[in-house]
Amino acid sequence: MGTALVVSLGIMAEKDAWLAILFGTVTGLLLFFVYVALYRQYPKLPLSGYIIEILGKPIGWPLALLYAIFFIYGAARDVRDGGVLLVISVLDQTPLIVINAVMTLSVAYVLNKGIEVLGRTALIFLGILVLSGVASNLLLFVSGVVDFTRLLPVLERGWEPVLETTLTHTYEFPFNEVICFTMVLPLLSEMKRGIRYGVIATLLSGFVLSLTTVMNIAALGIGIAGRATFPLLHTISLVNIGEFIQRLDLLVVLSLIIGDFFKIALFYYAGVKTAADLFQISDHRKLIYPVGLIILFVSIMIAGNFAEHIEEGNFALISVFLIFGSGLPILMLIVSTVKGKFRFNSS
Predict the structure, then answer these.
(1) Domain segments of the chain as ranges
(2) What's the predicted TM-score (pTM) here?
(3) Is the peptide bond before 174 cis (omega within 30 degrees of 0)?
(4) How far is 58 from 103, CA to CA, in rounded Å?
(5) pLDDT value at residue 229
(6) Superfamily of domain 2-346 in the CATH hierarchy
(7) CB under 8 Å, gap of 24 or more: what pairs does 283-292 form?
(8) Which of 51, 171, 180, 277 is most solvent-facing, going by the fewest CB within 10 Å?
(9) What is the DSSP letter of 100?
(10) What DSSP state is assigned to residue 152?
């Protein structure tokens, strides 16, 4: 989820943003099954491999190269997101390039140790994130700042805003980003268990995002939640129990940076593996630090300021991420299925 937790996700649907996120989760789950279907057809090949297998080398190789660029771009956007979050919330005197460099180098170091190390590290931090989330929600309730009547009436403007928000925002972000896992799926030792965990992770992610939006609106009201750059930080800053338990926004920032770290790592790894596969580099770790420099450079040059970064991100969601995350995988599944039936009929 990463930075999806901290932004105003689905807020175009106003009070029904939480509902748009749940619908986005359902469509995201359907998209995950598209990736699974391709994985079942080519269990030993990553995305970059079966693109060439399905479309042929003249079309598949350049397209796979575009995917490598897409993954690097996604990693750079997430580095910039994390850097901006830290600058705005706690490190306002630190240059953005320094924060981005530290984040990129940290991810590169873990990836250089291997994808297994990344997975074990994620398991360790998952417990911390769960405890942090549960504690934060409980403290919000105890503080008495949550008013669920702010969510009423449900569907005040009908279904149209919810469905429109689902198709234009909550489906694309963050569920189109699951495309990164197509570079990891061939490494699974047990296909069925991996797919089952993927389904559970998708559903839980959608639930957590929807719950977070509910808490933001219930605590802040739709006006503030819709205008705030990072509504979750505003929400958690309201916690004040006996003038003793307060300023939990720093804990939330830490949790969000942890989530962003692993999101960066997935895009980063997918970009490196795709490039190594295309250029037939046996040890992909040789590309980790060179690609890291590219990610760092792009994260700085991607936008002149935060407003421009957000505007570009909104455009990328309905164009770049939609094409690479949904359009092309669905097209490849159709072509692969038709080719398979044609070969079966010919035989």
Answers:
(1) 2-346
(2) 0.91
(3) yes
(4) 37
(5) 77
(6) Hydantoin permease (1.10.4160.10)
(7) 285/111, 285/112, 288/108, 288/111, 288/112, 289/108, 289/112, 291/72, 292/104, 292/105, 292/107, 292/108, 292/268
(8) 277
(9) H
(10) P
